[in-house]
Amino acid sequence: MTEVAKPAQATGTVSEKAAAQAAPLPDPPATAAAAPPSPAPPAPAAGPRPRPAATPIPVGQVEWLLATASRAPSIHNTQPWRFRVGEDAIELHSDPDSRLRVDRGGREMLISCGAALFGLRLAVRGLGYLPQVDLFPDEARPDLIARVMLGQAVAATEREQRMLAAVPHRHTHRGAFDQGELPAGLLPGLQHDALTEGATLAVVGGPTAYPKLAALVADAARVQAVNPIVREEVLRWSRLAGSRARDGVPALAFPQAAEPGPGRLTPRDFDLGRHVGRLSAPGPAGPPPPATAVLLTAGDSRADWLHAGQALYRLLIHAATAWVFASLHSQALEVPLLRELIQTRLALPGHPQMLLQFGRARTSLATARRSVPDSLI
Ligand SMILES: Cc1cc2nc3c(=O)[nH]c(=O)nc-3n(C[C@H](O)[C@H](O)[C@H](O)COP(=O)(O)O)c2cc1C
């Protein structure tokens, strides 16, 4: 059985084509540092303009804005995004050269870009502005994913400050989780996050749904283990210990054994029998993760993938504020037949975009990101 949160009025979403001012990210407060001071509003522009003049991007904050956005998760840590910084807008572009060959339609690339977009929106909130976002603002330039401007000056909420504080320790968790349930109310909160971003987080519960999902994920691992393109891409994007690369999945972040622990979905095999992984495997004694979930979208368009990415990063950061992390599993969704089977056999009310398992952990492992200059175009 899958449990899906009831649809709610989404807030803070961005609309395609039309610019939308995203509301502050809602939710419960906590102690936090005050937001950095907001720059003065711009002088009114001369002559007619299609929309009110945007606030200039503060030059001294660009590095922080882009570094925060770039902490987003991405498939194989490819960081398939690039930024162009203008006077009053930051453009987010996808980088098709980083698209995996197995990611035929660019779904995983756009989920990753959506995650970076959420990171940029959150960073703009940290500066004390509402982000104003145009999604796919130019049909003639499909790689231009979003244009983000500084809208109305509104101080970041305490919750947004807590989320910003969780960005550095948020990570994809491939090791053992600690014993214990998720904090009360967290899972519904994550479901709310997904809805707010135009997606749905369906919890996989009940005695039959998880075994069905686990079997399909294991099937995907078997299929992909003999796919030379998949293997080649893992080799290209996994990094040996001591590597100074600032992209790809480092040896410290994946284990050698790809066997799942109890209650854990078969992980992606980054080691490929090379014995290079440096992370301790969860092992058979590790406690099962308290929650397994599927991130869904109503449609399966480029815009849906962007929504999925924003939802993904939003809920991952929210979880990280409580030191709850997720293992991410997208292998089974890269095989069209298995993706379809996951949707139908689990009776999911939408297109599966990501499989997640949540648990508590007290450790964090931040993987490298490209330098900000390297992410500019
Ligand atoms: C679309 C997408 C698919 C992903 N698929 C997997 C996966 O199948 N297995 C896995 O271990 N991690 C997966 N990840 C996590 C990335 O490997 C991870 O985000 C990246 O290496 C950066 O590390 P970090 O999340 O710890 O910052 C995925 C991330 C995204 C955005």
Give a list of the ligands.
flavin mononucleotide
Query: What distance separates the N and C termini?
Result: 46 Å
Spatial order of the strands forming the largest sheet = 1-7-10-12-11
What is the CATH architecture descriptor of the largest domain? Answer: 3-Layer(aba) Sandwich
CATH topology of the largest domain: NADH Oxidase
Shape: globular
CATH superfamily of the largest domain: NADH Oxidase
Q: Which strand-content bin applies to the residues?
A: 15-25%
Supply the helix-strand structural class: alpha+beta
* DSSP strand count: 12
Radius of gyration: 20 Å
**Main beta-sheet annotation:** 5 strands, antiparallel
Oligomer type: single chain
Write the layout of secondary structure elements.
Layout: E1 2-4, E2 20-21, H1 62-70, E3 81-85, E4 90-94, H2 107-126, E5 129-135, E6 144-153, H3 158-166, H4 186-196, E7 200-204, H5 206-225, H6 228-237, E8 238-239, E9 249-250, E10 291-297, H7 302-321, E11 324-329, H8 336-345, E12 351-360
Parallel strand pairs: 8-9
Antiparallel strand pairs: 1-7, 2-5, 3-4, 4-6, 5-6, 7-10, 10-12, 11-12
The structure holds flavin mononucleotide.
